[in-house]
Structures are given as C-alpha cells and as structure tokens.
Amino acid sequence: GLFVTDYFTRTPRKLSPFRSFASIELFHFHIPEDTVVAVWNLITFKEQGGTFGDQCPDRSITVYFRSGAPSVINPLHTHFPRDTAVPGSFALTLTWTLPNRTTGVFNVTSPLPGDWFLAAHLPKDEGKISVKGLYEECQYLFQPQLIVQRLVNIAVLYPGHVTEQSMAPHNRSCLYKVFVPSYTSRVLVEVLRCRGAEGCPLWLRVRAKAPPLHNSTTLDCREHTPCQLAQDLPFWQHWYYVLVEKHPGVPGTVSFQVTVQLTDCSRPSLARPPFLPSSASMNMPHSFGSAGGLALGDSPPPTSPNDTKHPVPIPVTSHAGERCWPVRPTLRNELDTFSVHFYIFFGPNVSVPPDRPAVFVINLLPVLDSGGVLNLELRLNVSSLCGENVTVFGCLNHEVPLTSGDNTSVTCETESLAGFLLSVNATASLSRLRIPYPQTGSWYLSLRSLCATEHGFEPCSNVTAEVYLRAYLSPCINDCGIYGQCKLLRTNNYLYAACECKAGWNGWGCTDNAEAFSYGFQLLSTLLLCLSNVMFVPPVAIAVRSHYLLEAAVYIFTMFFSTFYHACDQPGIVVFCIMEYDVLQFCDFLGSLMSVWVTVIAMARLQPVVKQASVLYLLGAMLLSMALQMDRHGLWNLLGPSLFALGIMAVAWTARTIRRRHCYPPTWKRWAFYLCPGALIAAAAVLLYAFVETEENYFYIHSIWHLLIAGSVGFLLPPRAKPSRRLGPLPRRKGCGYQLCVNEQEELGLVDPAVASINSICTS
C-alpha cells in the first residue's frame, strides 16, 4: 500500500515536581485513522538562567500515555476514593544521556485512532520554599513530537459482498476494513476458495479500530476448514480491520476470496443484506464508492446511536437464542463545564422486569467530556421486592451493551470486552461508580434482576424491581472534599479538572489521610502564626514612647493584617477570613515592607528636616504598593526598598560623622546593646526565611520569623530626639490688635539705628 507520513510537535513546557494531577504537564495529540505506526520523540533539556543547565542535577522524568482520555496516574501510591474505577495507562521513565539533554523514543504499532494524551512530571521534591529571584532555578523542559505513518487506499469490504484477491510471491499480506454499524451482534469474516502451493497457507486476523497486531484474534486457515473468524458483540460505529497474511516461506501466488457477514441484532437469524443502494440505511459513511474495495480516505465520523427515532435493540451473549432489548436514551442537560446531568425519560425511577434487562445509553462528547468524572448511582427500592431475595445487577460497558445470558455467573467481561459491574439488593441497597477521565463515546448500562437460590442466581418470577438511577458528569470526585480544591486546568484548547489537596491530605479526591494534619495540629499552627504577631506590641510601645507615631501606626497595621492573613491562609479547616484573601495578602506584604522602610528611615534621623522625611515616607508607600502589585513574591520587593533605605541612612550617618568629626552614633553603648544585636536578629530572620523554610516546617519557622523581625525593630528603633539647644526668636506678646515696636538702644541714642534694629523688642 501507499504510506503517508504526518508530523506533529508541541511547544516545550517547564515540568514541575509531582504533588497532584494539577502539577503535571498534559499534551494532547490526535492520531488519524489507518495509522500503522506512531513514534513519539520525547525531547528533554535543562535550562538555568537562560543558558544550558549543565550543572543542574539529573532528575528522572516520567511520561504517561493513554488513548481516548488523560491518564489517571498515582505515582505516590495513595488511596483512591471508594467506588472509583482506575483505567490503565502506560508509563515511561526517561534517564539522562547527556549533561543537559536527553531524548526518548516510544513506538506504538497500529495505535488506536483518535485522541491521545501524554502526561509528564518530575519526582516529588522536599517541598522547600524558595524566595523568587534569590538564585537561578534549574528548569527542566519537555517537548514531545509525534510522527505517524498511515496507509491510504485500504480496500473496503461490503457486508455480503465477495472480494477476490491474488497475493503475489513478493507480497506478505493484504489489509481490508469493514464498517460495523450500530445494532450489530456479530461479525463473521470468511476466506473462500483459497488456492496456494501448500493448500491455504494463510493467517486470518481481525481487530477493531486499528490494523491487527500479532496478538489480535487470529485463525490459521491451514487447520480450520472453512476458514471463518467470528467476532461477537463488536464495537458499534467503528471500522474493523481484516488482515490476510501469508505464511513465511510459501512460494508462488496465493489466490482467495474474502467476505464479511454482519448479523443484525433485531434479526439474529438473518444477515444484513449484501448491498443497499443508500449507505445511510446501514449507518455507513457516504464515501464508500463502488463495491470491490475502492480507496477510502478520511471517512466522516460515524453517526451517533441516538440519531434514530426508533427503539434500539441490543444483543445477548447467548449464541443459541440471541434476543434484543430496547435501549432507552438519556437527555443531556449541561449546567456548567464538566457539570452535566443525564436524565432518563419517565425517570429517575426505573423498573427492571424479571424477564428482560433494562438498557440505557449515556453519550459523552468527544474531547469535551473526557476531562471530568463520570458518576453513576443505583439505589434499590426495597419495598418493591415483595419480600423476595432479588439482586439487581448492572453492567456499564463502553461502545457496546453487554448483558450476560448465563444465570449462574454474572460478569461484565468477555474475551474482547471489559466493563464495570454494579449490584444492589435488600442488604446493600446503594451502589456507586466513579470513572475519572472517562473515554468519550457511548456508554451502555444494562440492568438485570435475578433471584438468589441455593443453585445460584435464577430469573425471578413476577417481581419487578424498582431502581433509582442517577448519572452525571462532575469536574472532580465529591468536589475534592473539605481538604481539597477542584481546579479547572487548560492545555492549549483542552480543558480538564483535577484536585489540589491541602493539610497533608492526598489522593485523587483528597481522601487519603495517611499524612493528614490532625485538628490539634492545625489549631496549633494557626495559633502560632497568628499569636507570634503579638511581638509587635513592644515595638509599638517603644515607638509611642519615643514620639514615633507614624512608625507606631505602621507597626499596628502590620500586626493586624499579618494576624488575620495567616488566619485566612491556613490549608485545613481552622480558617478565619475577615476579608477577601487577596486583600489580606496585599496588606500583609505591604505592612511588612513598610515596617522595614519606616524603621530604617527613622534610624537615619531625618526628623529635623520634617518635610524631607514625610516625602520619603509617602514615596516609599507608593513605590512599595506598585512593586507588590507587579510581583508579590519577588526578591527585589524586599531587597530593593531595604537597600534604598539603608543607603539613605548611610548618607545621613556619614554626613553627621563628617560634621561632628567623630563616629555616629557617638556612644559605644548604642552600638553594643542596640544596633549590633538588632542587626544580628534581623539577619538571622532573613536567613531563616530564605534558606530554612519549607512546607513542613513553615508554621513554626515563619512564626520565629515574626518574633525575630518584631524583636529587631525594638532594638533598631532610635531613642527620642533631644530638643535643640539653640534659642528661637522671642515670643511676641499680643495686645489689643496692635504692636508697638520699641528699640531701647535707639531710644537711648547709644547705637546707629540700622545696627540696633536687630535687637528691637516689640511690646504692646
């Protein structure tokens, strides 16, 4: 056949250590139909400070692959919530081959067409809290690239139509495909009139959705006569691929005929007609062309099973007497993103008769619905059982309904199908099922009532069970509970939701309490972070006593908002917020930086020049507000104002030292008992904040930071300024609306009037 190669790539993204699914990087690809091989080229490289990160440590990178929906991963081995089904995925770990770059390759032969998702992350780190901008961070960038090779002009088989083929000596195989419409209970592929050098040296392989593999359903035509391969309960609205492969070492040409028979579920004794003039009557794409296997390119998507207005029959796995039951549709009601309810007509109470199953279909839209959680709930009305020991079984299967015809063993699996089993009875009347990141398409729920006897389960007689059925799509499992937050995430144009847990809780729904904080621990951490701000009371008292009223107001502002910000910032349930979180955070950061600013400006002793000091206070408040609005966690938000204020203080102290011709401050006691201890305490606080603080020790290290910073202010704040010894102008005594200026020396005629005017005294 003719091969076409397609190439897809994605923009490199920075990987993060794994904490929850919200911290992974998700990549979305689409693999076209008729793809025979897909190769993912996984490129990873390091960066540090805009250059190659040769000095960065090697950290393993884990990549997950899944078709149809994002992978449900659990690298921390936490517990999933109850009644949660975990779909499987494939994981690959990349190791470094070069100092700053590595490449991995992942091949998939005959991949399933449609959406594919890649998820990548770094290992979990120690949770260190680093100051932004303190040092150049090592970044690990990941870029996946996809190369697909697909076949064109694959021969199409029509049901009931015979296709003749001659396989030349240099050919190994012939590939065909047939479209299986809805309500098909069986696909039968048969090789006829096979003639070769050694009988019929052919292998017959059949697979749904993609070309067959070595482990697909296979039949050796040498050992089976006639050479027939049947597929019961095939996937509806999908292509089935038929591969006729020649045995190795067989000389000459092999000729044969291939035919396909599709059994209609509503008429199990009849095959579908061999040819219909209208492809719409068979729910087949309109681009088939003429019979005989002409080329078929990219076919339009199959129609939905809900497009029909008539009851839809479903097959039963009993080959002796296949029967069909109507499928009841559901009404889709979209409330919000990943918030969809599926209502049943004349529901939600469903009657399950004793002689036949009740079947329902739930349609999930492609791409849009795969990023949430599919929830299913069954509740049995015990009063409807009339005292009988009735058990209602439910099978949830993807793309084809399944009800077992065997009464002794109740299962939702076959050789080619795997579903989810639910059951309710008088003892356990409630059953739930949650499927995170479900595959899109049609999901079929089959309900059947059986009575328990000594010999197993048997059909009930004259007992119609009543079941309350609820099906809905939600963003997260139980909205992540009280110890988690459900986040709506986006990668390019794909939306998905994930839980971000707090207070030590883990798991897909924040239900794993193996490392959870107790209530006492949460209360203790909250009290420590809040009450440690009381240490600002002594600096406030010192500032008021020294007549630093503006500084005292700033310290009170900082103490108030720091207390209530940390009361609102707690991850657990011990939380108290008096304002919006963003407002409290801004005021706390602003108060902290303003406390440093006004303390250093006060140490500069600019009080005699009152106008200049006020300008500096106002300028600092405006610049700090602007900086915090730009980036609240940046290093220069704290370092920049502090260095600028220290520069002003250094200039002022240097000027006084030069003018007085001795060191300022002049006394050694001021240096030994105030300045040096205060500077050491402040330096220790900064070191703890920048290098020691982690997520585990945050509550007590940050409390120590509060104590040290407030204590350093008490040491560094200068004493009250002494009044100046210079005499000011004499006070003028006011009389009754006028003043009489008398120059005593001029009156006595002792000095020249121009000189004596400087000693004039105004009296009333």
UniProtKB/TrEMBL annotation:
Q: Name one Pfam family in it.
A: DUF3522
* Domain EGF-like intervals: 499-510
Annotated localization = Cell membrane
Bilayer-spanning residue ranges? 516-536, 548-567, 573-597, 609-628, 634-655, 671-692, 698-717
Query: What membrane topology is given?
Result: Multi-pass membrane protein
- Annotated GO CC locations: plasma membrane
**Predominant location category:** membrane
- Per UniProt, which keywords does this protein have? Cell membrane, Membrane, Transmembrane, Transmembrane helix
Q: Does the keyword Membrane apply?
A: yes
Q: Does the keyword Transferase apply?
A: no
Tree of life domain:
Eukaryota
Q: Which family does it belong to?
A: Belongs to the TMEM8 family.
Q: What is this protein called?
A: TMM8B protein
**Source species:** Rhagologus leucostigma
What are the leading ranks of the lineage? Eukaryota, Metazoa, Chordata, Craniata, Vertebrata
